[in-house]
Amino acid sequence: MHRRLHEPRRSLPLLAVFVIAAASAQADEATPGAAAAATAPTAAADLGTPAGPNPDAGLPIGGFLVYPSIFVGVVYNDNLYATHDDRKAALGMLFSPNVTAVDDQGLHKTTLTLSGAITAFPDHTSSSNGQPSPTNVSGTIGAEHVWTPAEDLTVDVKAAFARQYGIFGSSVATNAGFISSPNVTSVSAYTQYSNQVSGSVAIEKKFNDQWFLRGGVGAQDTEYEGGSAGVAGGQSGADYNFFLRSGFWLTPQINAFVEGGADLRRYRDSWYDSNAYRVVGGLSSDEIGLFRGEIYGGYQKQFSARGNFGAVDAPAYGAAIYYYPTRYLTLAGRVDQSFGSAAAQTAAFAGSPSGDTVQTRLEADYSLSEYWNASARAGYARTTWSNSSLVESAWTFGGEINYNFWRNVALTLNYQYTSVDANRSGVTTYSQNLVSAGMTYHY
After folding, report:
1. Distance between CA 238 and CA 221 in Å, rounded?
2. Is the dihedral of CA 26, 32, 34, 39 positive or negative?
3. CA angle, 240 as apex, 349 and 36 as ends, to 5°?
4. Is residue 128, in this structure, part of any structural domain at all?
5. If we measure between CA atoms, which residue out of 236, 217, 216 comes closest to residue 226?
6. C-alpha torsion sign, points 402, 331, 245, 152
7. What is the pLDDT of residues 295-348, one digit of tens each?
8. 9 found inside a domain
9. Which residues contact 172 (CB under 8 A, 6 or more apart)?
10. Cα angle 107-210-199, degrees, rounded to a multiple of 5
11. Which parts of 63-170 are beta strand (E)?
């Protein structure tokens, strides 16, 4: 039952939306060679989801091996509407399907994923104070196709749809890691649901055993849904990105790279439209002993596309580490700083399209025995705004325990705590505890 935390199979830049789509969270682990050159900065990478599935355990359907799992149970929420005052608690039902389908033909590899959480609170179906209804659906659907026409050439195409609320999403479902948008998102105290559609194409070319060049383009459309009249809705819109990276393998395990990228954001309210660019350099490794990861740093700048607000610049930095001390334990950590897209805010504090966001994520996965498995996760994010003194922060921690008591059936207990805070009155701050318990079936 041992699971390694997922890490992205191929890297893309932090500003690029096509970096790691949340819907590709169950893609296979990186392999040496060309794929190893693909580890790159990305704040959107999901930690804590299962690694590539075992081919011997798949359900053959057509040319695909399908790996379904289903969680059914109850969920307790002590703050249904994510409010500071007048907290309402209730017990509801939770249904969480997860499916991965892989068709690996060598030259072509296609991966389809679905991960969702359906929560139902029969006596609390309507929204309160403009906050989303606790009876809702969240999750991701994604597809990735990798074409390798030659050993020195790889083409990676991704498409995804994600629905979530909050910068870390809602991790009440079984085997839940952090769900995040492909494009880095700013912290918002208003827990409005967002629907995100993204697509990307990335191409990598190796010129010899040491040099490689990678480039790509991508787009993401984000739509914030619902909300009260007092919430600004102009932050919905599209994001267009491209990047180019050149790298050199210093040793068979470590490569140095330089990367440039641009980010064009176009919102429903064109006042927010912005352009951004960044240049970073760093070191990356597929695996050194028990470690793999990357570290990078550089410069980034964001400015108004229409001259409505001043330019802002900041350091761009980050690191990601995956550590496998034993076959039963995996540790993962990530930290990064980047400009995020404008987030849904109350109208009184709208007008700050440039958010400088720092995110930190930690996860651990441990197989206690053949029958017991445990995981833990924690995250922190903080956004400062260019045109405002408003500072918003969010942090979360949680864990899960699985007891496999019969064949492919396990008892699952999951806990998640989330806290969102702001430094100005009139902005919603809240804390929330989520507890789910039930049964998980893995094919």
Report:
1. 4
2. positive
3. 115
4. yes
5. 236
6. negative
7. 999 999 988 888 887 788 889 999 999 998 888 899 999 998 888 776 655 544
8. no
9. 75, 94, 117, 119, 414, 416, 434, 436
10. 45
11. 64-77, 90-104, 108-120, 136-150, 153-165
pLDDT tens, residue by residue, 261-294: 999 989 888 888 889 999 999 999 877 778 889 9
**268 in Cβ contact with 237 (< 8 Å):** yes
pTM, whole model, 2 decimals?
A: 0.78
Tell me if 391 sits within 8 A of 420, measured CB to CB: no
Q: What is the CATH number of the domain that holds 270?
A: 2.40.160
In whole numbers, what is the pLDDT of the chain averaged over residues?
Answer: 78
How many CB atoms are located within 10 Å of the residue 395 CB? 19
Residue with tokens 């590709």: 24
Q: Which residue has the higher pLDDT, 348 or 50?
A: 348
Amino acid at 164: Q
Token pair for 165 = 């609320």
Is residue 412 a part of any domain in this protein? yes
Spatial separation of the C-alpha atoms in residues 234 and 191, rounded to whole Å: 16
CA count, 13 A, side-chain hemisphere, 399: 8
Write out the E strands in 225-290.
Answer: 237-249, 254-267, 274-288
- The span from the CA of 336 to the CA of 317, in Å, is 6
Cα 381 from chain centre = 13
| pLDDT of residue 22 exceeding 60 | no
138 pLDDT band (50/70/90 cuts)? confident
Instruction: Determine the Cα–Cα distance for residues 222 and 227; give it in Å rounded to an integer.
Output: 15
Reported as a single tens digit per residue, the pLDDT across 368-392 is 888 899 999 999 988 887 767 778 8
Predicted pLDDT at 158: 95
CB 6 within 8 A of CB 177: yes
Amino acid 45: pLDDT: 33
- pLDDT exceeds cutoff 90 at 218: yes
Q: What percent of the chain has pLDDT over 70?
A: 74
**Measured CA distances, 238 to 142, 162, 183, 272 (Å):** 19, 14, 11, 12
How far apart CA 224 and CA 236 sit, in angstroms, is: 6
Give the pLDDT of residue 246. 96
Domain tally, the chain: 1
DSSP designation for 316? E
> How many whole angstroms separate alpha carbon 86 and alpha carbon 105?
56
Q: Which domain holds residue 411?
A: 22-442
Query: Is 33 a member of any domain?
Result: yes
